Amino acid sequence: MSEETETPDVVEEREEQAYALDRKTWAGILYALDVEDPELLESLTAPMHAADIADLLEQFNPYDRGRFIRLYSGDIHGDILSELDESLREEVIRFLDPDQLAEAVRTLESDDVVDLVEDMDDADAEAILGALEDSDRVAVQQALSFPEGSAGRLMQREVVWAPDHWTVGEAIDYMRNTEDLPDQFYHIVLVDPRMRPMANVTLGRLMASRREVKLADLAEESFRVIPVTQDEEDVAYAFNQYHLISAPVVDDDGRLIGVITIDDAMIVLDEEHEEDILLLAGVTESSLSEGVIETSKSRLPWLFINMCTAVLSSIVIAQFEDTIEAFVALAVLLPIVASMGGNAGTQTLTVSVRALATRDLTAANLMRVVRREATVGLMNGVAFAVCLGIVGMVWFGMPQLGLVIAAALIVNMLVAALAGTLVPVTLDRLGVDPALASGTFVTTMTDMMGFFAFLGLATVILL
Amino acid sequence: MSEETETPDVVEEREEQAYALDRKTWAGILYALDVEDPELLESLTAPMHAADIADLLEQFNPYDRGRFIRLYSGDIHGDILSELDESLREEVIRFLDPDQLAEAVRTLESDDVVDLVEDMDDADAEAILGALEDSDRVAVQQALSFPEGSAGRLMQREVVWAPDHWTVGEAIDYMRNTEDLPDQFYHIVLVDPRMRPMANVTLGRLMASRREVKLADLAEESFRVIPVTQDEEDVAYAFNQYHLISAPVVDDDGRLIGVITIDDAMIVLDEEHEEDILLLAGVTESSLSEGVIETSKSRLPWLFINMCTAVLSSIVIAQFEDTIEAFVALAVLLPIVASMGGNAGTQTLTVSVRALATRDLTAANLMRVVRREATVGLMNGVAFAVCLGIVGMVWFGMPQLGLVIAAALIVNMLVAALAGTLVPVTLDRLGVDPALASGTFVTTMTDMMGFFAFLGLATVILL
């Protein structure tokens, strides 16, 4: 075991396996804040990764966050800022004086600076851009000239490339003589004389080959070129689908202008998933650190739409007031019809939204999927119709009531299956994220159709 | 532009940017199946990535799938099998004769074979293991000896490592003289004399350094060791949180036994997300290729639980039959109370489940998050209480009815906030996936409490 590598950090990190801030460290840090002991704070936070310190800041209440930054302020470096949730960045940046901020951002790679400034207001962004060296600032401004959420925002501009006629020896000599190779790179991009990417060569194969071997003969099988304007969601999909590690980015003329690596794609994939899961529940904010007012506001629109659709369902019920007055049992059973339809609809909807995201549901198999979901809905509808028909019959002693709820349930489960597939597919065709608003549409349909079928049948059969 | 690199595949792949099977190709393939033209099929599928051919097989109906495999059967290679959805693998494997199967799996890396056989029944798994060469079979069997879903199943056993006292020159000479380096590797793992990993050196930094530089001086900052028994979910979290590209896997004594790379972690992350999003909706199957019977069966348990809880809510309503008989308007408004509470609860629940998954919600900030959600719930409750109070008053001309629905709504939104946070946290503490069953628990609470508050208040105030 040599001295250079076995630093305390490594030991500490190896011991910590759950990757969560343990209670002891948490308590220690709060104690350090209480007694205002910067050295204790330093010793507790030194082994922590920037991402964990960012998590710590996110979990603090605003008071503790302020105390932490004041006691720690010498060292809030760029990595912590770029790991921090967007909703907190501006708050933390306000604690830093201009010199500290400049120092912090100068350590960042240009794609991280882009990530940092793209959501800021102009004054804050200017302050950060002003702190950068000229060449870095130009790189960031060029990246910002691409549309938000495009490959251009995601890529690094530093690419290691070689003409496609080079040999292994030429590539190694070139790399050894180049001063400023990127910190992290995994491939050499082979380009033709017009700078168009032709293939990737992994560094591993390069190392394992003799000097006289042609780079072109080492080309990797899995090779994709990403257009700079491509949506980052499609970029993440390509990395996931084709197991890419890095992919060259090209401009409209097909010329190499940057590279995207799998770690960036993984972050996008994670964000897209988060967005889908939250949108399905009608949540647009994404952070626990968001304030009460913002959170409350961000959830209002969805609840408001839900209120309107719930009133629509009530209007359906109101048409049958006389029937309900005659048979109060109907009011008792109403929520069951709504609940079963809503649940079955949500199941189908979620499967469809996922299948659209993974491109497993396409025009080619849409009709087959709809038929499958309808059949499943009918089968489950019949199963629960039998159960609930018996419940209705036994509970209220009315065989016809059992018949009514059974028939309504079958209708509603079929509506749920159709709405759960066709609503997200339709939204997707219209260019709307299928996760958005699908939930309300589908449950509105199952509620209204369920109530109408149940109360309508009751009126015909029972009255 | 040189001949070797500009293959038809590359051109084809560059042109296809949407990453989805286009309609023309799809129609062409179906035509090839209809006229039974293996050459046309070959020419259409040749440019396709194995992952896309697997998608194609998934989107076919069983009849076309059979026709495709018969016409294509010479070439269903291992990559396609390992990309294929689990529910279809056994169906496709049954079309292959033992020689074809043996040929198919021999081309796979050992971790892909593990992925292939771990969900098979014993006879099929034996057939595949029997087709492997001895050394590969041993590797697969060793991997299978680790628990399912552990780092041991995920890792590759082929690691490039070096003693931590080596220089760049020694490492390069070693690699150039080693016959069977892995196809894809990005780091050299430095180990101490007891084979314990000390640091990672990226190949890029290695290439850029002079021969006499010590490897230890090039060690990467971000370095994590993964215990072989660690849950794959934690592995994926670590890669995502700490931006790892590859990480050494160690046995109980801390000795290097394998390596996990970011592409494996990305697949796990994707699967975990899929599981969460589906579980939240009460779906346990994950594939559109699953048959109708299996799908129907897999959705029944959740719907059954939902039926039972819906009946519980009905029982609450049944206690107030007299009140409803006196004021049928109550039956009309009931679904609104349930729907608003259910939606608010689902919003809070989803945020909590995500925050637990990303470790943003911990013991340290639980109380603060609960207070925040309760405050948001109360604020939104009051906002909608005013709206719906007015609706109730105007619609039915009864001021007291407006008051009742307003009060019930505030109670219900508060219940939704508390249940939406505390239910998933409790499940998580009990070691249950918080996404599982949270939905039913939360909506049952909001339904029952909502109906009880609404009808109870109505009984007190209106009767």
Automatic annotation (TrEMBL), chains A, B:
UniProt xrefs under PROSITE patterns: CBS
Subcellular location(s) of the protein: Cell membrane; Membrane
Recorded GO CC terms: plasma membrane
One Gene Ontology molecular-function label: magnesium ion transmembrane transporter activity
Organism domain of life: Bacteria
InterPro entries xref list: CBS_dom, CBS_dom_sf, Mg_transptr_MgtE_intracell_dom, MgtE_N_sf, MgtE_transporter, SLC41_membr_dom, SLC41_membr_dom_sf
Membrane association type: Multi-pass membrane protein
Membrane spanning stretches: 374-396, 402-423, 435-462
Domain CBS: 219-275
Keywords associated with the record: CBS domain, Cell membrane, Magnesium, Membrane, Metal-binding, Transmembrane, Transmembrane helix, Transport
Subunit structure: Homodimer.
Function of the protein: Acts as a magnesium transporter.
PANTHER family cross-referenced by the UniProt entry: MAGNESIUM TRANSPORTER MGTE (PTHR43773)
Family: Belongs to the SLC41A transporter family.
The name this protein goes by in its record: Magnesium transporter MgtE
